Amino acid sequence: MQLAEITGDSGTSSFDPAAIQADGGCFMLVRNAADEAVACGALRRLTSGVAELKRMYVREPGNGIGRKLLHALEQQARWLGYRQLWLETRRVNLRAIKFYLAQGYRIRENYGRYRGNPQAVCFEKVLE
């Protein structure tokens, strides 16, 4: 299922590839044995100790790829020196909310451009 089918918005208007390519960011792509892209995710620097998780997507959820990708992104964030990861998803994206809660993320106050947005729910996780 595509993001636009869940939330009514593809999210492309709020995506800045330059922010991912900047110092302290990264992009991960997961390919299957047929070399097809099946999942992706990115990190974007927010502050010296906090990165934002962006563009987390798995083509076919439920097979563990999303969890493995998230753990790889968390490991990369630690390696880059981040102590926390923050992220935002839409309240209507119940599958994502359930996933992040199951991975140890907790709901936090909306931050940045999501402040005051009743459709947004933000999460954080302290990286140990």
UniProtKB/TrEMBL annotation:
Transmembrane annotation, as ranges: none
Domain of life the protein comes from: Bacteria
Record bears the keyword Acyltransferase: yes
One Pfam family this sequence matches: Acetyltransf_1
Molecular functions (GO terms): acyltransferase activity
Domain N-acetyltransferase: start-end pairs: 1-128
Keywords annotated in UniProt: Acyltransferase, Transferase
Acyltransferase in keyword set: yes
InterPro entries according to UniProt: Acyl_CoA_acyltransferase, Bact_Acetyltransf, GNAT_dom
Protein name: GNAT family N-acetyltransferase
Naturally occurring in which organism (per UniProt): Serratia marcescens
